[in-house]
Each structure stands twice: as structure tokens, then as C-alpha cells.
Amino acid sequence: MGKKVAVIGAGASGLPAIKACLDEGLDPTCFERSDDIGGLWRFKKDPEESRASIYNSVIINTSKEMMCYSDYPIPEDYPNYMHNSKVLEYFYQYMNHFQLKKYIKFKTSVCSVKKRPDFATTGQWDVTTEHNGKQETHVFDAILVCVGHHTSPNLPLHSFPGIEKFKGHYFHSRDYKAPEEFKNKRVIVVGIGNTGVDLAVELCGVAKQVYLSTRRGAWLLNRVFDNGFPLDIVLFSRFYGLFQDAFPSLVNTFLENKVNSRVNHDNFGLKPQHRMLSQHPTISDDLPNRIISGKVLIKTNIKRFEETDVVFEDGTVEKDIDVVIFATGYKFFFSFFDDSVIKVEKNQAPLYKMMFLPHLEKPTVAFIGYVQPLGAIMPISEIQARWATKVFTGTVF
Hints:
Blueprint: E1 4-8, H1 14-23, E2 27-31, H2 64-67, H3 84-97, E3 104-105, E4 108-115, H4 119-122, E5 125-131, E6 134-140, E7 142-145, E8 152-153, E9 169-172, E10 186-190, H5 194-203, E11 209-213, E12 220-221, H6 231-235, H7 238-246, H8 248-262, E13 282-283, H9 287-292, E14 296-299, E15 302-305, E16 310-312, E17 317-318, E18 323-326, E19 330-331, E20 365-367, H10 378-393
Parallel strand pairs: 1-2, 1-7, 2-3, 7-20, 9-18, 10-11, 10-18, 11-14, 12-13
Antiparallel strand pairs: 4-5, 5-6, 8-19, 15-16, 16-17
């Protein structure tokens, strides 16, 4: 085998990274801190430290046709939009088909990744791992970082005055699993991204009342688009891509008019100040129905908390709130690197093409899956891994 490559993480990005190494004649060793593959897409009732966590009902927002890896299609009998259990099944099939499991070391955490003293000439790294309480250090020629960015909750409590005296229950959406325990509760969900909207829609089936608090609104897209086709199959074509690059304002106007013809965002309290394509739209087929039936009430940003009540920036007050769920996203960092290698500030990393560290003497580390696309991450991670491994072998520069 060729150069030794450490792949950190065995999720949606780690699996194609292992395969890309094998395709280029490299010798991969994948370190996975949990006991199985799947990363974000492996549901567990109890969240695990430093691992992504999802709720039981999660359905992927990208169609199977657009999210599959290029050399292993998703089975035809799988639905266009898959439940998280189906996504995990697909990862198992991909792993078994290409015989990737033997390259994965489970229950093995990466403690540190440090440049070797001769890094300037060799580009090599000392990788220290821990398994069953025992640490080991090995030398690797290159590193592929595939740990994702949904592991550390962003819970900005300093932005919510009075939270310390609030007598209700509050937590980050990472800890939400199922709606049953919120029966007959008055619940506020903070955040109008995909998770916040999913939770609001699901909770309103059992809760006494659900409020969805948003700072700036969002554009809503539905999974089922023109003629019943999946959204991304219709919109993510080469034609639309070229048209968007050439006439971005026109495309924004077209899409905004299209979604407003279904749901007038102004009337529903959803209209944001930003244009459609300047930020991630939110995917939801169900939220407008819940709003128009009063099951979900849209609220402005929270101004302050009181013991049992919540005051919003528009001056309205909702009393006797039982639960507040903060769907406020995630922050990411790389605990195994020191700041001389990479320093993440305000959730931004200084990466060339969202992959490489331009200040390193040798391009022997790449970050896979840290793009936040409008579509699926899986094929992007695959092509990133293919590029990175070719850089490692010197095939491309």
C-alpha cells in the first residue's frame, strides 16, 4: 500500500474518504469514536458526547437521486425522501459493498494530531488515539478530517435576558428525541431553520400550544415541487445553475414569487429581509398548514424571560410557558489540533476551497464535508475526498 492516511470519523464524509484513499492506492485507517458508522444519521435515544444527535422522526431534505454517492445508487424501492433509518441502511450497504469496515477502528478517539519535527520536508503527522483507556501514537502521511459540524450545540443564553430566573424547562434541540413528553405543554421553539420548523410541526400534534420564535424569518420551500418532483431534482440542474450565476436577482425574484404564490410569507409572519438565495431556505411541507390552523403561532425574537412568561420584541407576552427549545444551530472546532494548525473563529475556518490550510508547508491535511450547500453533502464529500487524495499522491497540485 501507499502513504498512510488517517481518516477521522466514519459518517457521511468518512466513508467515501476511506474509499477515495483505496482508489488512489493509499493506506487508510479510519478512527471512529463511537461503536458504529453513520455519524449524524445514526439515531440514539440518549445523545452521546461529541457526536451528532438527531430526533427520531428526521427525514432527509434532499432526494435519494441527488444525495447518493456516484458509484453506488440508492435502491429503487427506497422513497425519494428517506427517513434517517433508511439513510443509515444505505451507508451500511455502501460500506459492505466496498468492504470498508476492515479499515475502521471503532471506539477509538483521536486525542491529538501534531506536526512531526520534520513536517516541513515530510508533511507527516503524529496522531495520538485512545481506545479502552489506552493511548497510542502513530505516524501518518496525511489526514482527512470528517467529523462534521453538528456535534457541539450553540446555546447563546447570554442573548436571552432573564433566562436564569425562568422556572420552565429549556434545552438545545440536540437533546430533543420525540414529542410525547410535551403533551399539553405550552412550548416555544427558538429558531426557524429546518430543525426548529420540524420540531414545531411535530410538537403541535401533542402540545397545548406551540410558538415559533424567529429573529428574521425565512423563505419556505417544500420538498414536493413542480409536477410532484423532488425540489432538488427540479432546481439543482446545470441550466438553473448557469441561469443563477448569470442573473442572480432575476432567479431570486422568480423563486420568491413562486413560494409566495403558495404561502404569502408576509401574511404568515415569515417574510425575511434577505433574498431567497442569500441564506439557506427552510424546507417544510407542513408549517403553513399548522400556522393557518393556529397550531403554531409565529413570534418575533425573544426580548426577555420572566419566571413563567416570555416577552417578545414586538411587545407581546406569552404566559405560563412550560418549555423552551433552542434550535439555534451548532458551533464547530477541532479539539485534536492546536491553534497553530487551525483556529476556528465565529464558526469560520480559514480553509482554501473549504478544504485545505493554505499556510501549511505541505498540503497533507484536508477537511471533508465542511461546505454547507443548498443540496446534499454526500456527493460533495465524495468529490472533495477524491480531490484530496489526488493531492496527497501528487497527481494534482
